[in-house]
User: What shape does this take?
Amino acid sequence: MDVFGLLYLDELSHGLANLSMFPYFDMAHYIVSVMALREQPGALEVSRSSPLACWFSSMLFCFGGAVLSGIMLAEPLVAPLSNSTSVLLASVVWYLVFYCPMDLVYCCAALLPLRLVLSGMKEVTRTWKVLGGVTQAHSKYKDSLLVMIAIGWAKGAGGGLISNFEQLVRGVWKPETNELLKMSYPTKITLIGAVLFTLQQTHYLPLRKQHLMLIYTVFTVVNKSRMMLTGSSTSPFASIESAVFKTLFAGSSPYAALTADVLKSNIDNSTTNRMTSTTTTKESNENEAAGKGKRGSLKAKEESENRVTANCKKTE
Assistant: This one.
């Protein structure tokens, strides 16, 4: 694009496209992923009771995207673990984050300035994973936009999409945390990236690959940094999502009237039951009070008769 040439961003985009992810960016991805696992409720207890389960969960956090995309492309499940160097590096990071003496590694990585840098580097790897998934799907299914989007999405956000399976490894079952039910920001931004790179790959988006990589990477890094600095978890697309949902998916339902009638009937029945219960209780209290009054009058009458009898005996 001419804009990139005018702003001297062409060389920057080419440099970014040729940037190697191993070892520094991959290491940042592993550190942030394992730290995210450690901060899950109950993860520390699992690391002490079952280190093997903790290690396996860490590998799912680190290589979840490759595992999920491999399943979708009918590739061997162990293929992501075939790179011994990456697995060894991720394992070393896992050990240091969970078992380092005095917890030095986690405490240092948790400092905001360092964590900000590590999270930014992880966002850079997201671009390469999404693009790699789209390219891999394009080589096998050239005309299927849906498959390309799905594989790119799975490769970039697989760790979140298989979170329920990862939780099962730690003995936790929370189906309500399914990413498809309530997508987190990383899952949403990865899906948007998969759509954009798919459109670019199929030439529906008139933009060079390296230029799109630069735009997407800068957006994800800047927005992630903003969210961390402000402590906000609100998606920048929240207003757009709300407008689209209200326009397309929040229309009047044909069962709305029936639902309203049923709800009104339930409310009326509940009110009637309360009123009946109140009336019954009131009548019961009145009857009990009347019974007590009657018993009291009979007792007073008996005492009066006893006194009269005693007086008559004294007179005789």
Summary: Residues 256-315 form the longest helix (60 residues). The chain has a mean pLDDT of 84. DSSP finds 14 helices and no strands in the chain.
